[in-house]
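tool_call predict_complex ligand=flavin-adenine dinucleotide
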Amino acid sequence: MSHDTIVVGGGVIGMAIARALAPERSVLLLERDRPGRQASWAAAGMLCPQSEAEEDGDLFRFGLDSLSMYPGFVSELRDETGVDVEYRADGVLALASGRDEMDDLRRRAAWQRRIGLDAKLLDGDAVARLEPRLTLQAEGGLFFPGDHQVRPRRLLDALERSCMLRGVDVASDAAAAEVLSAAGAVRGVRVGATEIHGPSVIVAAGAWASSLEGLVPRVETRPRKGQILSLRMPGPDIRRVVRWRHLYLVPRNDDRLIVGGTDEDVGFDRNLTAAGVGGLLDGARRMASAVGAFPIVETWTGLRPMLPDGLPAIGEAGLDGLYYALGHYRNGILLAPGTVEIVRAALEGDPAPAYAEAFRPMRLAESVSADRV
Ligand SMILES: Cc1cc2nc3c(=O)[nH]c(=O)nc-3n(C[C@H](O)[C@H](O)[C@H](O)COP(=O)(O)OP(=O)(O)OC[C@H]3O[C@@H](n4cnc5c(N)ncnc54)[C@H](O)[C@@H]3O)c2cc1C
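tool_result ok
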């Protein structure tokens, strides 16, 4: 068996890359489970560089750039697969319940406006006009018209169909155990006792990347558990994404309201907990008391793939033909189209955007040797 490119991991990142490279290249996508059932499936789908960022920087610039690619990305997917991924550009409202939180929103509005972005400070009355069913006594809020959302499970469905249509060879229940190499160059991948040959391998294995043998540099992923749930919202009580502290409410186009999310450092534990789910529901009811009467539809968890410095690793790794696309932590849905472009540039030897330097996989080797000194 031989392919031009082998992608390890069928989450949003692996599938977005695989479809982008096909059909010009023969691509094999290896997925340990079924495609699109891990972190990407668990995500809320906020495309929120502005409401997520504390400061300007490479990750922020990357998020803005990737978001700017979304309209083209989703319309191409719709034309190709017929799947509407419910891309919504109706903005995100961040709430402040006290003076300190409002000061924080003011700081954020100030630096974002300085670089030409739209961020509207609102007083309590303006918040109530925008979202009349909120019951949190808000000091005020900050509205980000530029932050958007998408429905991740539909996005994954569209990506998988697109992979099929473009002739990607998608292998489910196929866990890569090792990246094979000789004389500093990739030879392929081992799955169980089977060797699959190919001159380039792209590792997009999310929180599990660290268990893959043969990686240069080694990868240390730190899974971050997110507990999250959905409610049935009988009417349009919440109109757009609303965030308060670590909580968010995300209304879908049908009657679903997503309430998320915890961010826990508990290894590979995937349990739902009383504190996790209880905290989400209490917070949601403080934001909008009507939520207390909404039926619970589903509860679930996912493992966000985080690297020690919190940044993704995207691009050429330490063997000829080895590339990483992993560690997207809280923003992998947002960063998927931008990641495709960085990987494509690396494969074709084209220049990448300046911010991509911060995501060089080889920095992982430098931090390991620095730790040892
Ligand atoms: C509760 C929650 C809410 C979130 N909300 C948002 C949000 O609103 N917006 C946003 O942008 N991001 C959000 N995220 C983050 C986002 O989900 C992740 O950053 C993104 O899904 C990472 O994508 P991935 O493809 O790297 O990982 P995954 O989706 O986990 O995919 C990795 C895949 O690799 C496979 N795999 C692993 N090892 C192997 C192997 N050895 N061989 C073959 N296959 C392998 C796995 O089975 C898996 O399918 C959220 C995450 C969580 C948990």
